[in-house]
Automatic annotation (TrEMBL):
Residues the record lists as binding Mg(2+): D219, K239, T243
Fumarylacetoacetase-like C-terminal domain residues: 111-384
Cofactors: Mg(2+); Ca(2+)
A molecular-function term among this protein's GO annotations: fumarylacetoacetase activity
Domain of life: Bacteria
Pathway(s) this gene product operates in, as recorded in its UniProt entry: Amino-acid degradation; L-phenylalanine degradation; acetoacetate and fumarate from L-phenylalanine: step 6/6
Keyword ATP-binding: no
Residue ranges constituting the Fumarylacetoacetase N-terminal domain according to the UniProt record: 18-96
The protein, known as: fumarylacetoacetase
């Protein structure tokens, strides 16, 4: 672990080995880019002075590319660990409590993958009983759909219960109204920094050149709307009403110690999707419902890794833009208490879970708060916190 002179930082999960980026503002001042250290934000506009930090999003900084990302990270780490850097950094440290956090980046395109073998198998069994849970393509490519970037919201934003069409159990005709099966999906999101030209593909080996960092994602899902609408084109309004992301983007470089071999793949993917480096990530997530832990999904168990997702996403020549967000899909592990959605935890609503106050849930009720957190191992015993993504359900309008 690299020690920081900032009080409390080393043990906070936001020590000098983490240094995630976000956007903050102070009372009456325009937003700026900052780095979190302990319970403080280092104002990068003040500490480094570069124009891309006087900005309301990380996009201008992310667009500069991986050489600048690494150089900036090294400078910031130096300031927050060495006594010589302290003179510059200290006047630019803002207590977290004096800041308002803003959405960290402007989302360009948003894609959601489906990369957990257990999640895909569980959902297949619940939605399509009697069929093979996995379609024949599943082990050959990371399945995904395009989501709605305009409804990606920052952690803390209230989620209004969506209305839509659904087919009530046993009914022959659909009805329209508030969803009765509102769910969560705990996911990891990858934020693209460096764009590409139309027609170009990104190979698995160029992953770290394009992906700036990771966020936690909750892909809120209305299971009744989804189940009725999805055939044959996939999820649409059942997921497009809101997707929440955490407020600190953890740089890929902070996850070096969390890298692990991806899960074994059988059959071997086609050459353009074959892994060339270890981009599995050993990250443990925690899902809390009204404060109670209901699941601990293990990201290291994902079948497809993020380098493969990016290679697939661009394999047809689709261009990348700064701010593109692609999420892993729901993270579910082999154990029951590792499932990343209520759909799976309650097996389609047939096995309610009991909360600490004695109440039970199948799906979310108005007033429920869901919080997803995650931690990864850092260098030499450090812990890297990925912060949290939280949201409270409000009654349908
Ligand atoms: O299998 C289906 O029909 C639908 C699956 C999902 O809801 C999954 C989705 O949003 C992708 C994911 O989070 O894994
Ligand atoms: Ca999802
Ligand atoms: Mg969504």
């Amino acid at each position: 672990m690299t020690n920081s002179w900032v009080p409390g930082a080393d043990a906070s999960g936001f020590g000098a080995d983490n240094l995630p980026y976000g956007v903050f503002s102070r009372a009456g001042a325009p937003p700026r880019v900052g780095v979190r250290i302990g319970d403080y934000v280092l104002d990068l506009a003040g500490a480094l002075g570069d124009s891309e930090f006087f900005a309301a999003s990380l996009n201008p900084f992310m667009a500069r590319g991986s050489t600048v990302w690494l150089a900036t990270r090294a400078k910031v780490a130096g300031m927050l660990t060495a006594e010589q850097g302290r003179a510059v950094a200290e006047p630019n440290l803002v207590p977290l409590g004096e800041t308002v956090l803003r959405p960290p980046f402007e989302v360009a395109d948003y894609v959601d993958f489906y990369c957990s073998l257990e999640h895909a198998s569980n959902v297949g069994a619940i939605f399509r009983p009697g069929d093979e849970p996995l379609k024949p393509n599943w082990r050959h490519l990371p399945v995904a759909y395009h989501g709605r970037s305009g409804t990606v919201v920052a952690s803390g934003t209230d989620i209004v219960r969506p209305s839509g069409q659904r087919l009530p159990p046993g009914a022959k005709e659909p009805v329209f109204g508030p969803s009765t099966r509102l769910d969560i999906e705990a996911e990891l999101g990858f934020v693209v920094g460096t764009r590409t030209a139309l027609g170009r593909s990104v190979s698995v080996s160029d992953f770290a050149e394009h992906v700036f960092g990771v966020v936690l994602v909750n892909d809120w899902s209305a299971r009744d709307i989804q189940a009725w609408e999805y055939a044959p084109l996939g999820p649409f309004l059942g997921k497009s009403f809101a997707t929440s992301v955490s407020q600190w983007v953890v740089p890929l470089d902070a996850l070096g110690a969390a890298r692990c071999a991806g899960r074994e793949q059988d059959p071997a993917p086609l050459p353009h999707l074959r892994r060339l480096a270890d981009w599995g990530l050993d990250i443990t997530m925690e899902v809390r419902l009204n404060g109670q832990v209901v699941s601990r999904p293990p990201f290291g168990a994902m079948y497809w890794t993020a380098d493969q997702m990016l290679a697939h996403l661009t394999s047809n020549g689709a261009a990348l833009r700064t701010g593109d967000l692609y999420a892993s899909g729901t993270v579910s592990g082999p154990r029951k208490d590792q499932r990343g959605s209520l759909l799976e935890l309650t097996w389609g609503g047939s096995e309610p879970i009991t909360l600490g106050d004695g109440s039970t849930r199948t799906f979310l009720e108005d007033g429920d708060t869901v919080t997803v957190t995650a931690r990864a191992a850092g260098m030499a015993g450090a812990t890297i916190s990925l912060g949290e993504v939280t949201g409270t359900v409000r009654a349908a309008l």
